[in-house]
Inverse folding.
């Protein structure tokens, strides 16, 4: 299973979200999930099973396949909730 964090340009915010996803997965006791980060221009559907994107990129990221929209990329509670829900849907929890 692969998760990816995607930001609009550059890689700073997506790298932060990637690190936070890894932290959440660890807290949840979920293993075997590879996490990466991309900017929107280099993200492609074959690079991950689920893409976590900030709200303002939701429309532009539809081509990626399964996306999880984050209202705030700095809200760790929201991220934990959405990562946990995604893990449940994928049978990882």
């Amino acid at each position: 299973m692969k998760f990816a964090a995607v930001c609009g340009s550059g890689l700073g915010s997506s790298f932060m979200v990637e690190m936070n996803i890894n932290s959440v997965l660890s807290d949840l006791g979920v293993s075997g999930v590879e996490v990466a980060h991309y900017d929107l221009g280099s993200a492609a559907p074959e690079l991950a099973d689920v893409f976590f994107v900030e709200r303002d990129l939701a429309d532009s990221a539809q081509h990626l396949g399964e996306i999880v929209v984050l209202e705030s990329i700095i809200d760790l509670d929201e991220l934990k909730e959405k990562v946990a829900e995604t893990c449940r849907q994928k049978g990882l929890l």
